[in-house]
Amino acid sequence: MPKPPLTLYLAAPRGFCAGVDRAIRIVEMAIEKWGAPIYVRHEIVHNKYVVDGLRAKGAVFVEELDEVPDDRPVIFSAHGVAKSVPEAADRRNMVYVDATCPLVSKVHIEAERHHENGLQMVMIGHAGHPETIGTMGQLPEGEVLLVETAEDVATLAPRDPERLAYITQTTLSVDDTAGIVAALVARFPGITGPHKEDICYATTNRQAAVKAIAPKVEALLVIGAPNSSNSRRLVEVARSAGCRYAQLVGRAAEIDWRALEGVKAIGLTAGASAPEVLVDEVVAAFHERFAVTVETVETTRENVEFKVPRVLRQPA
């Protein structure tokens, strides 16, 4: 029986961003330099396949610093940590490497600069997300007010409405964030915004590619982890752009094939912490069931690369 025809639209760019690639390299180079075990505070990036692969090489993932022995190196995840974490490591004379994405570090620096200028911060982000916790932890308690939705803006009670600045989590929906910023500016006309957009290039680019694909397809799959903010935002963007069926899948085994019966065109992308090997796995699974024509929809090209910390670089 012939396989049903299917056009598979592959988003480009998709998958690993420069910050994720750098963080993974940091863990691998640390294991090479110091030997196993290397401890990592929180998942280095939000992807089970990546975390399991690093665990097999000798990485031990923990949630808090007190789970790490004094005599073993520890790495802080790409999402960033509160200032109290490296301070605690210093008190214990621990060796640590900060794998915080440089674009998250940029937001940390912004927050500190505004604080030094006497401004109270408003952070647009998701409560409980490691990046939000880390960014809010750059300043003393009470100096950063969190908003998750435009509705939250109405209940903000700043110390001085005339002395405010805002920052954002780097992995948010571009469109949703624009609505929250508009609400902030409407209520606090003098609020100071970031010098340059806080939402990172990779988040923006992956969302733009999904928007380009969504009108062409009946379904769109996002490869990514349930705790990956940028991956979940891609699902939301696809639905907002008119795709009636958009789902997050960890890998090929999680695809609901019954939901895709009769579909002639499907979009496929991957969150910034999902490796290309998982994309290949999903494409292969479609080839097993359909007569697939693959089309790449490229909206931009990325050539960003971040250097690893000096302590891990080989001498020239």
From TrEMBL:
Catalyses which reaction(s): isopentenyl diphosphate + 2 oxidized [2Fe-2S]-[ferredoxin] + H2O = (2E)-4-hydroxy-3-methylbut-2-enyl diphosphate + 2 reduced [2Fe-2S]-[ferredoxin] + 2 H(+); dimethylallyl diphosphate + 2 oxidized [2Fe-2S]-[ferredoxin] + H2O = (2E)-4-hydroxy-3-methylbut-2-enyl diphosphate + 2 reduced [2Fe-2S]-[ferredoxin] + 2 H(+)
Amino acids binding [4Fe-4S] cluster: 17, 101, 200
Sites where the protein binds isopentenyl diphosphate: 46, 79, 129, 228-230, 273
Gene3D superfamilies for the chain: 3.40.50.11270, 4-hydroxy-3-methylbut-2-enyl diphosphate reductase, catalytic domain
Enzyme class: oxidoreductase
Residue positions binding (2E)-4-hydroxy-3-methylbut-2-enyl diphosphate: 46, 79, 129, 170, 228-230, 273
Domain of life: Bacteria
Catalytic residue list: 131 (proton donor)
Cofactor(s) the record lists: [4Fe-4S] cluster
GO biological process: dimethylallyl diphosphate biosynthetic process; isopentenyl diphosphate biosynthetic process, methylerythritol 4-phosphate pathway; terpenoid biosynthetic process
Family: Belongs to the IspH family.
Family annotation (HAMAP family): IspH (MF_00191)
Function per UniProt: Catalyzes the conversion of 1-hydroxy-2-methyl-2-(E)-butenyl 4-diphosphate (HMBPP) into a mixture of isopentenyl diphosphate (IPP) and dimethylallyl diphosphate (DMAPP). Acts in the terminal step of the DOXP/MEP pathway for isoprenoid precursor biosynthesis.
Name the UniProt record assigns to this protein: 4-hydroxy-3-methylbut-2-enyl diphosphate reductase
Originating species: Maritimibacter fusiformis
Native organism taxonomy: Bacteria, Pseudomonadati, Pseudomonadota, Alphaproteobacteria, Rhodobacterales
Gene name linked to the record: ispH
